Amino acid sequence: HxxxxxxxxxxxxxxxxxxxxxxxxxxxxxxxxxxxxxxxxFSDSLREPDGETIxxxxxxxxxxxxx
Length: 67
Description:
Blueprint: E1 2-4, H1 10-23, E2 33-47, E3 54-66
Antiparallel strand pairs: 1-3, 2-3
């Protein structure tokens, strides 16, 4: 989740993009498991009821298997 009060949705989109660049299909080291794949599923943003805060949602799917 991303929350920002910077005017407009631009910052939330920039943060979501940076997360995707860092995590989509990343190779991560896990304890007791092997990461098969890590994929970005979706990103979305919406304005919170206060009218000022942008709430970004970023979802990833990680597939793992025991070592």
